[in-house]
Design brief:
mainly alpha, 12 helices, globular
């Protein structure tokens, strides 16, 4: 665990020194602000509906941010030739993956926290439950964690950051749009596909302030699966 935290500290410092982390965070907040202004504050709507619409936009932005944050973690190291240094260091592959994951998740959490002023604006002219706000943000962080793990897997299997971005975007799009495929299939396949979709059915309860254990377990399972896949990929490449 100590080695993983050392890797995490190294990555957080890297985000802070480069423009990438700041640019992604600023762009995310800008898009979320525009979405909130255009879809949440326009017209006469109930406060709960405004908050739900904010979380709908923020969840989509968070998925994209997670994939962008994950691209340089392994593919970038491979391009720069610094991944060899990590592979020859006295550190296990699982600690490398865990450290990089924790660093990127911390950055996602920071960007998410910076957007909290938007839901708080609802209290100026309306009223919403703090539990609704907490559940919505929990859903965003869980979704971001799963998307980040997907991005780390594609970063692990890619030889370049461009390839990692393309694969990450494609895999994320497939995971998100499974609910559309479910609409044109018959039971029980449609139920399975809809339940596997990264957004939609799994994220909607969080947006409405409902915290369901099955959805939490789903996101944790997706995160674990793709982080494990990234670890095994790194292990396989080490011995080539």
């Amino acid at each position: 665990m100590r080695n993983a935290l050392l890797v995490a500290g190294r990555e957080i410092g890297s985000y802070g020194r480069s423009l990438l982390g700041w640019a992604i965070g600023a762009a995310a907040l800008l898009v979320e602000g525009l979405w909130f202004s255009a879809n949440g504050l326009s017209g006469s709507r109930m406060s709960a509906d405004v908050l739900r619409e904010f979380f709908n936009g923020a969840s989509g932005v968070t998925m994209i941010v997670a994939v962008l944050m994950s691209i340089p973690l392994l593919a970038g190291e491979r391009e720069r030739g610094t991944l060899v240094l990590l592979n020859t260091a006295p550190i296990r592959d699982v600690e490398i993956i865990a450290g990089k994951y924790l660093a990127a998740l911390a950055m996602i959490g920071l960007v998410t926290l910076a957007s909290v002023y938007m839901p708080l604006l609802i209290f100026v002219n309306g009223k919403v439950s703090l539990g609704h706000v907490a559940a919505g943000y929990a859903g965003i962080l869980l979704l971001g964690s799963a998307a980040l793990a997907i991005g780390m897997f594609t970063s692990a299997v890619s030889r370049s950051q461009v390839m990692a971005a393309i694969l990450g975007g494609l895999l994320l799009a497939v995971m998100v749009t499974l609910w559309l495929v479910a609409k044109v299939t018959e039971p029980p396949v449609n139920g399975v596909l809809s339940g596997m979709a990264l957004h939609h059915q799994r994220q909607f309860p969080f947006m409405t302030g409902v915290l369901k254990l099955e959805n939490v377990v789903y996101y944790v399972a997706v995160t674990y699966f793709f982080l494990l896949a990234a670890t095994k990929t790194l292990e396989a490449r080490r011995w080539r």
